[in-house]
TrEMBL record:
Coiled coil: none
Residues spanning the membrane: 12-35
Top-level taxon of origin: Bacteria
Keywords: Membrane, Transmembrane, Transmembrane helix
InterPro entries from the UniProt entry: Rv3655c/TadE, TadE-like_dom
Protein name: TadE-like domain-containing protein
Keyword Transmembrane helix: yes
Pfam family, one: TadE
TadE-like domain residues: 11-53
Amino acid sequence: MRRVRRRDERGAVTAEAAVVLPVLVLVTVALAWLVSLGVAQVRVVDASREAARALARGESQGTAVALARRVAPGGASVRTDATGTTVRSVVVAPVRGPGGVFGALPTVRVRAEAVALKELGT
């Protein structure tokens, strides 16, 4: 009778974990960055709407921009325009990568625009 020798598999789990863990960390960081992009987009939309509402109510352009900057992410630019019967606001904000491996990624700009009708008597 012939004896079959089993291969020694000690350390195989450690080697697999050593390969998989860095990949899981990269995926986690990428997902966290995508979530931060989504949050920044929501904040930009809210800031744009806030500025448009303020202008539609008859607030000054400076007040509308200040309200938008309070809601918008840091480094955002706010443009407003009140011509005719409508008001318009555009907010653009940069979102930088999380650093590390993703530090080489270019800055992403999120943008939102809101338009509103001026209220009567303004």
